[in-house]
């Protein structure tokens, strides 16, 4: 019995998924995924009218989008400092 209940909670991870599953997996809108796949940010497999995504490629693409938060904060502070220093 114990094995059966554990089987219910096993995560089944598919390697190739459709755009709706990628959207749910990444929390990105479907339109954004379509746009990014057209731009080459997300690699995809087109098979007739179907578009499939390799979940490993999705993970790599998302990892490439990561940026440290402090980097943006430093840039904003520099811009504000430059503006204040110029007397604007």
Largest sheet strand order: 1-3-2
Tally of separate domains:
1
What's the Cα radius of gyration? 21 Å
Number of helices: 5
The tally of beta strands, per DSSP, is 3
Strand content: 5-15%
Net shape: elongated
Class based on secondary structure composition and strand pairing: mainly alpha
Largest sheet: 3 strands, antiparallel
The CATH class label is Mainly Alpha
What does this molecule look like?
This is Helix-turn-helix domain-containing protein. The chain has one domain (about 15-85): Arc Repressor Mutant, subunit A, CATH 1.10.10. It is about 60% helix and about 10% strand. The chain has five helices and three strands. It starts with a helix and ends with a helix.
Short description:
With 88 residues, the chain is mainly α. The chain has helices at residues 2-8, 19-26, 30-39, 55-65, 69-85, and strands at residues 16-17, 45-47, 50-54. A hairpin with a 2-residue loop joins β2 (45-47) and β3.
What's the topology here?
Elements: H1 2-8, E1 16-17, H2 19-26, H3 30-39, E2 45-47, E3 50-54, H4 55-65, H5 69-85
Antiparallel strand pairs: 1-3, 2-3
Keywords:
5 helices; Arc Repressor Mutant, subunit A; 3-stranded antiparallel beta sheet; elongated; HTH_17; mainly alpha; 11% strand; 88 residues; 3 strands
């Amino acid at each position: 019995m114990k094995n059966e209940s554990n089987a219910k909670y096993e995560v089944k991870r598919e390697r190739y998924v459709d755009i709706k599953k990628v959207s749910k997996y990444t929390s990105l809108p479907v339109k954004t995924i379509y746009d990014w796949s057209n731009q080459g940010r997300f690699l995809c497999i087109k098979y007739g009218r179907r578009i499939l995504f390799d979940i490993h490629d999705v993970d790599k693409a998302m990892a490439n989008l990561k940026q440290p938060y402090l980097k943006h904060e430093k840039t904003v502070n520099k811009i504000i400092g430059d503006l204040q220093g110029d007397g604007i």
